[in-house]
Amino acid sequence: MPTNVVGLCEVFTDPLWRISVHLTPVEVDLLRSEPLRRLHFIAHGGASTISTLQSYSRLEHSLGVLALVSHFRRDDQVLRVAALVHDIGHLPLSHTFEGVADLNHHAIGTDLLQADPVRAVLARHGISTDAVVTTLDKRSASPLSSHSSLLNLDHLDSYVRSGRFSGRLNADPAVLLDRLEIKDAAVSTDRETAGTLVDLVCAEARLHTSWDNVGPVSVVRRLVCRLLDGGAADPYRLARMTDPQLWSAFDSLEATRAEGTMLRYELHRLKVVSGGVPDDPSAWDYALRKIYSSAPLIDGERLEVSAPELAAELDHLRLLPTRFRVWWA
Predict the structure, then answer these.
(1) Rounded to whole angstroms, how far apart are CA atoms 244 and 225?
(2) Which residues of 93-127 are buried (b: 16+ CB within 10 A; e: fewer)?
(3) How many CA atoms lie within 13 A of 196 on its CB side?
(4) Which of 31, 110, 143, 151 could form a disulfide with 294 if both were Cys (CB 3.0 to 4.6 A apart)?
(5) Is 258 strand, coil or helix?
(6) How far apart are the first and last CA of the chain?
(7) Contact, 200 vs 313, CB < 8 A?
(8) DSSP structural state of residue 42
(9) DSSP strands (E only) in 135-227
(10) Cβ neighbours of residue 24 under 8 Å, at least 6 residues apart?
């Protein structure tokens, strides 16, 4: 059923999980704030949105995580708020140029939570900003962020949503949901469903190491560095742009205009190989920052104990290439 994402309807129904969320007043106010509205114009898939059909936004993902939290922890208002705001620090094109000029979306997100308008919204509804920040801390016992090696609700939505858009998801998400629970702040399920989730995790890792992701991401990072070197934008202003504003910035500077146009309209010319070849002066190096491989629990036990063959599949992701040479043919 059609639904808006600015809180005009009392109930938001997530189209992936088919969970109906009764929005609280603080959630409605947050959905109408600039940091949340901005996420509607940030592609969850980053630069690979121009090489694939993964066109959904960071806001869609954030609402999906809110839906999952409302399903498992309906009355935990702090956790619900944390789910909704967990990505407000993301740069344009999401993770694409994370680390350039030391930009970090977690740090930016924390700063935004402690500043207006988000701080004022939370205070108006009696929500502690510190409690939200703590819930999102990687060291917390939260099903949103704890256990870096275990599957949390944030990554669960990412893997399943990506699997649906790329045609890799054979199971009905609503059926998967009925087989999931939260144990020790991590996602736990049965052996069969764990296999489905591990398949999605592995497929996502292979997507990140493929031409579809490496090629466009490496070019955007080059262009962003030129914007910064040319003084067209300072790092923080660049970090708060939307995707359309970033493309406009590329078009506005002579040093980035031509390659930015090639990236959008002649992407097929981009070549990617793993390792150190070719020895071409026009080629450049690109290295992946990390490969995500979080694992679900099976009946509360780690995969290493309950399904070592699935643990081995995730362990094999370490063999994927992470260093590449890229060039325009």
Answers:
(1) 18
(2) bbbbbbebeebebbebbbebbeeeebeebbeebeb
(3) 21
(4) 151
(5) helix
(6) 46
(7) no
(8) S
(9) 181-183, 186-189
(10) 77, 80
pLDDT of residue 127: 98
Is-contact 98 289, C-beta < 8 A? yes
CA dihedral 40, 45, 46, 48 (to 10 degrees): -130
What single-letter DSSP state applies at residue 150? B
- 126: tokens are 């009696």
List CB contacts of 206: < 8 A, sequence separation 6 or more. Answer: 320
Spatial separation of the C-alpha atoms in residues 272 and 325, rounded to whole Å: 6
Q: Pairing state of beta strands 20-22 and 186-189?
A: unpaired
- The Cα 43–Cα 65 span in angstroms is 16
CB-based contacts of 63: which residues, under 8 Å, 6+ apart?
Answer: 5, 12, 14, 21, 84
Report d(CA 83, CA 61) in Å as an integer.
Answer: 10
User: Environment class of residue 258 by beta-carbon count within 10 Å: exposed (0-12), middle (13-18) or buried (19+)?
Assistant: exposed
pTM above threshold 0.90: yes
pLDDT band at 1 (very low <50, low <70, confident <90, very high): low
Residue 235's Cβ-side half-sphere holds a number of Cα atoms within 13 Å equal to: 12
Report residue 74 as tokens: 């309906």
The per-residue pLDDT for range 171-223, each reduced to its tens digit, is 999 999 999 999 989 999 999 999 999 999 999 999 999 999 999 999 999 99
Does the structure show a pLDDT above 90 at 121? yes
- Decide: 267 and 329 in contact? Cβ < 8 Å: no
pLDDT digits (tens, 9 = 90+) for 149-175: 899 999 999 999 999 999 999 899 999
* DSSP code of residue 314: H
Whole-Å CA distances, 183 to 72, 146, 299? 11, 12, 8
Q: How far apart are CA 6 and CA 3, in angstroms?
A: 9
Per the CB < 8 A criterion, the answer to whether 242 and 42 are in contact is yes
- Number of C-beta neighbours around residue 257 at 10 A: 13
Instruction: For residue 196, give both structure tokens.
Output: 């489905």
Residue 325 sits at φ, ψ, to 5 deg, of -115, 135
Residue 125 tokens read as 């509804």
Q: Which DSSP helix (H) or strand (E) runs through 242?
A: none
